[in-house]
Design brief:
188 residues; alpha/beta; L,D-transpeptidase catalytic domain-like; 4 helices; 12 strands; 29% strand; extended
Length: 188
């Protein structure tokens, strides 16, 4: 009987040491990855990637047209798709040059909305999408490599002191002058 109890104590000590080591490794892994978030300024039609509060990269985008504005609020990336297929009202567009989603799709926690590429690069810088955040394919491919599922995405329809610091106050003045601009015939 004492032998079995001794064996159980040794096993419990080993299990405790193993769990402690695993928890420490996970904590170090989480510390190694900086806090990352995506901030979108709808009036500036710009997207910034921030890591630990520092701007890593800013990209130009197209945002929702007046008839189909981009949503505002805080979301998360819930899906990452390379060469997405576009499904709309009984129509399926496979990956390729005619696909309005371009080469990458980053689906948001708000169903039906995401950050994606485009087959209409001339729409970038305009209020031209159906509400999604649209990027040049080369830019969305770069963004795709930088972010992951679970990363927060914040979409703002007005300026804040933080947005002024990220995108610059000059951008706010320029955006105010072209806020109603749109691109005829653009989709998604």
């Amino acid at each position: 009987m004492l032998r079995a109890e001794d064996h159980i104590r040794k096993l419990a000590a080993f299990t405790s040491a193993f769990l402690l080591a695993t928890a420490e490794a996970l904590a170090q892994e989480n510390q190694a990855r900086p806090a990352r978030r995506i901030v979108v300024s709808i009036p500036d039609r710009k997207l910034a990637v921030l890591e630990s509060g520092r701007v890593v990269k800013i990209f130009s985008t197209a945002v929702g047209a007046p008839a189909s504005p981009s949503p505002t609020g805080s979301y998360q990336i819930v899906q990452r798709v390379t060469d997405p297929t576009w499904y709309t009202k009984g129509k399926i567009v496979p990956p390729g040059k005619s696909n309005p989603l371009g080469t990458r799709w980053l689906g948001l926690s708000l169903k039906g909305y995401g950050i994606h590429g485009t087959n209409s690069p001339s729409s970038i810088g305009h209020n031209a999408s159906h509400g999604c955040i649209r990027m040049r394919n080369r830019d969305v491919e770069q963004l795709f490599a930088m972010v992951g599922v679970g990363d927060p995405v914040e979409l703002y329809d007005g300026r804040t002191p933080e947005l002024d610091a990220i995108f610059g106050e000059q951008a706010a003045v320029a955006a105010a002058g072209t806020a109603g601009a749109s691109s005829p015939g653009a989709n998604q």
